Every structure is written in C-alpha cells, then in structure tokens.
Amino acid sequence: MNHWLFKSEPDTFSVDDLARARGATTTWDGVRNHQVRNMMRDQMRVGDLGFFYHSSCAVPGIAGVVRVVRAGYPERAALDPKHRYFDPDSDAVNPRWYCVDVRLERSIDPLVTLETLRKHARGALADMLILRRGNRLSVTPVTDEEWHFILSLA
Predict the structure, then answer these.
(1) CA-CA distance, 120 to 115, in Å (whole number)?
(2) Pairing of strands 3-8, 49-54
(3) Which domain range does residue 134 map to?
(4) Measured between alpha carbons, how far is 141 from 149 in angstroms, rounded to an integer?
C-alpha cells in the first residue's frame, strides 16, 4: 500500500466538503502537473491511504485521512469545454490528465498543523516533501515511516 498527501485549499474544497459529499467520496481532479498526473495514473492503487491537507489558508495542516477508491482514470472534465478544468489540448484517445476517486476515512480534529510538522523537520519528517522549500505539488508521496509518525501526532 502506498501513502499520499493530497493538498486542497479549504476555500475551494475542504475536508468538511468531502464529508458532505455523496458517500463522502469525490473525484480528485483538476491536477495540471505532469509529475502528479503520472503518480495518479501509474502509482495510485485502490486501497492506498492519504492525508487530506488544507493549504493556502490561515492554519495549514492535515485535516483528514482519505482512501483511494478508484485508481487513476482519464479525467472527463478536461474534455468538457463548459468545465473549469477544460484543456483544449486534451483528447479522449490520448488523455492528457488523470484523476482518482477518494473517500473520507476520518477527519482529524484538531488538525496536525504545518507548524507541528515543521517541528519534526530535522527528525522523523526530515525528508517529507511538503516540508521542502519550493515544493508546490498538489499530491506527494508519504513514506510508511512518515505516515505512522504523523498518525501518532493526530
């Protein structure tokens, strides 16, 4: 099983929004980064777990745990000219963008803040991608060690 960190701005889509979604499940779409697209397409599997991370907000941090319930598949929104994620360079024969479906397993309240994660940046979380300067990826892999350590903080 792989572990991931999924970033979302809570003003756009929060862990509470996911909790209210039908079956507490959503399509994780709108990713427009080739590296993340490749992870979603080639590495994510049904059953993988991820942290739901609130970013670009007053108190960023891990707000929940999600499970991948549908592995990578071509993103339909990229083909729909009326959708905000439309990409005119996408085509159905050779899809450019992929997505996965995730289901909320549980909320984390209080959240594990970015400040708390940074306190461990020289120890257990020394290699965690979210803590690296300049990392702007919306989805990043999380090691087993990082996963279990962060769960111990929750």
Answers:
(1) 9
(2) parallel
(3) 3-145
(4) 15
Q: Identify the residue whose tokens are 């965690």.
A: 128
CA-to-CA separations, 60 to 41, 73, 85, in angstroms, rounded: 27, 29, 24
Q: How far apart are CA 128 and CA 37, in angstroms?
A: 20
Give the three-state DSSP class for 131.
helix
Looking at the domain assignment, is residue 152 inside a domain? no
Q: Which amino acid is at 19?
A: A
pLDDT in tens, 56-91: 999 999 999 999 999 999 999 999 999 999 898 998
CATH code of the domain in which 93 resides: 3.10.590.10
Model pLDDT, residue 134? 82
